[in-house]
Amino acid sequence: MSLSLSDLLADPTLAGADPVVHAGHERMSAPVRWVHTSEVLDIAQLLRGGELLLVGGGGLAEASEEDRRRYIAELAERGVVGLALETGTRLPSIPTEMVDEARRLDFPLIELHAVVRFVEVTQAVNGTLINASVRQLQLADRVSHALAAGLADGAHIDDLLGILARVAQARARLVTPAGELIAEAGTEPAPSLNKSMPDITAPVNSAGVTVAMLTLTPGPDSDLLMLHAARDRAPEALGLALLRWRPLSQVQRDSHEFLTVAVRGTRSPRRLVELAERLGIRGQSAWIGVVARVPETQGATLAMHGVLQRDGRSVVSEITQERYVAVVALDLGDIPLAHARRNMLRELRETPLPPQLRGALGPGTRDLASIGRCLHEAQAALDLHDDRDQEVMVDSLDLGVERFVAAVNRPALVAELIDEQLGDLLASDRRRGGRLFETLETFLRHSGRKTDTAADLHLQRQSLYQRLDRITALLGDPEPGSPRWASISLAVNLEGARRRGVAGT
User: Fold this and answer.
1) Taking burial as the number of CB atoms within 10 A of a residue's CB, which of 84, 148, 158, 318 is the most buried?
2) Proportion of the chain in helix, strand, coil states, percent, rounded to 5
3) How far is the C-alpha of 282 from the C-alpha of 269, rounded, in Å?
4) What CATH number corresponds to the domain at position 67?
5) Torsion of CA 462, 468, 471, 477, to 10 degrees
6) How far apart are CA 79 and CA 107, in angstroms?
7) Are residues 308 and 395 in the same domain?
8) Mean pLDDT confidence for 110-128
């Protein structure tokens, strides 16, 4: 069984240290792959992700504020599950800047108030993790052998699902991404039995396309490790069975090739046009790309797909590797593309979608050959989308600066421009702990409307005026409407992207 970060803090080897979580409370259920200890500040590059890092704090006590912030940021970027930091003589408390950075990144930062023997923690926890991994491998082999024997005997998909249900001692259900039942097997457990263990789900792929979703509902004798083993091994065998008994339709094959050609690009645009013609989306006047990360639940994209098909819009889509990709074709007539995009985004945001789903609307194009770029930009916006944001659908146009900066990937050049335009203002904030940059960013976001800026910042108008006077003085009193303001605005957007952790800044 995997151990969560909360499980580890409750383990006797760590519980005695009176652990206190200062940041990342919502990520305490994350599974821990390994426990590691090191005092090296640039350890992140040597980690694989999924570790809980135990640190005594000696190196951090001597580090600069900037190095401490960078330390937290690098661990979070690497995918480390959390940092447990021992405080005491060398480091009386966790530095404020580390707590601030961890909270900004929603990275679990834990303070250990008592001395613990890290070697005992790593031996106990890692030993448990290794034993669980070995047993899960054994169970996974049992699942694979049972399903392989069924395939060799020519078992139909219904029979294969029955074998899986018996081995996993669970109810097995297989449905298409659209929610259509393919097969099910096993005894339906009583509702009261489902509370302790949730359903286990996994995508089933065939010829590179997600063609079904497998759901395993635990029964009274279910073993969680066995269910996870079945989730890992069963999809491959079920995918082969579906390929034999339910091969992809021509539309599915054409859709897969069309989206693949669009994303990867081709030296022969004629093939893209041929596929668009066969799929019935060549004659429209505009196209919009949509990309989403979908949760492993059956029918997760049904609501989104239904919205995209409204008003007679044609949609070519597929799910691959838990990613939903779609091209929406529109007949706009005299309607501006921007207007059609705005309406589609509004419809998506107003439709109840699974909270775990995160999607992005691409910029749109009137040139079919450019649809690949639209999908790339939608994916780029999705990659930049902050999962802590409550907005399920993001508009790629809102992240234009961030996408550009990430694509350019010139941190030094960006830093030089920011320092050139905003150097004194940012230095003043650092010295005084001020909010001048935040004020300027908000002021520009509201297009210079002082009333809206003051309301957004919860300031009295007179206080805002004083801040704006200070800001313009630090910027050199640029003339309103002058070319300098365009450079300042760009620098503000770049600094905002940098603070949000965008690649390339």
Assistant:
1) 84
2) 55, 15, 30
3) 13
4) 3.40.1390.20
5) -120
6) 9
7) yes
8) 72
Q: What is the three-class DSSP state of 272?
A: helix
Count of structural domains within the chain = 4
**Residue 300 counted as domain residue:** yes
203 & 342 share domain? no
Question: Does residue 166 form part of some domain?
Answer: yes
Report how far Cα 209 is from the mean position of its chain's Cα atoms: 21
Max Cα separation, the chain?
82
Residues 6+ apart with CB under 8 A from 368: 272, 273, 276, 282, 287
**Residue 116 exposure: Cα atoms within 13 Å on the Cβ side:** 28
316-363 per-position pLDDT tens digit: 988 876 788 999 999 988 889 999 999 999 999 888 877 778 899 999
**Helix/strand/coil (H, E, C) string of 30-96?**
CEECEEEECCCCCHHHHCCCCEEEEECCHHHHHCCHHHHHHHHHHHHHHCCCEEEEECCCCCCCCCH
- Asked if the structure places residue 24 within a domain, the reply is yes
Which residue carries 């998506």 as its tokens? Answer: 348
Domain interval for residue 65: 3-116
147 neighbors 233 (Cβ within 8 angstroms): yes
Q: At residue 202, what are phi and psi to the nearest 5 degrees? A: -160, 145
CA dist., res. 310 & res. 330, Å (int):
11
